[in-house]
Amino acid sequence: MEDDNFKKCGGETYARGHLRNIATKLQIDERIFLDIFEIEVAAPVKPIRELLSENNVTDPYQEPKNVSWKALAAGSLAALLLFGLAQVIFSIASDDPVITTLPSVKVSESAKPEPTESARPISADAVTIDIRATRGASWLYAFDKEGTQVFSGLLSKGDSKRLSDPKQLNLRVGNAGGVDISVNGKEVGSIGADGEVVNLTYNAD
């Protein structure tokens, strides 16, 4: 401290502490010592990193080294060379023809639609009746010659039903005016009025 070198005793902050202790021992106002210290010895305000370094709190701060412009130029040149080389390789690769093999496609035969009931051939050795609910819904019962029921149900408007028997068919139609009937491919014509219930019998011969 006598040589104004405070690094060995902990820096200026610790020097001020030593001065306070000395002033206390000598029973002198510590501000006198501190004012003289600030005028003659104290260094200008330093950054906090340097203050911490002086007080042995952190390692001494070292200014970052400036990067040489020659090193920067060399790095830039190397990057340009790599970029140019990549461009040349990409250009050569793109000039090669690309052969693409397309998968073979098998053309499947279109499925043939199933024939509707009205489109199926009519046997000449039986009685075949086509009932179409063209103008309205109607319920329908059908029996063979022995009285066995062969159909029972409701035909909604637009529905159709084909019935066939080797000998005879007996029909009971709930809404005669709403349906059209053909027997063995021949139209029968009107079988009744709207809402009328009719009974019909058709034989194979």
UniProtKB/TrEMBL annotation:
Coiled coil: none annotated. InterPro entries: Bact_Cytoskel_RodZ, RodZ-like_C. The keyword RNA-binding does not apply. The keyword Transmembrane helix applies. Signal peptide: none annotated. Residues 135-201 form the Cytoskeleton protein RodZ-like C-terminal domain. Keywords: Membrane, Transmembrane, Transmembrane helix. The chain crosses the membrane at residues 71-93. This is Unannotated protein. It comes from freshwater metagenome.
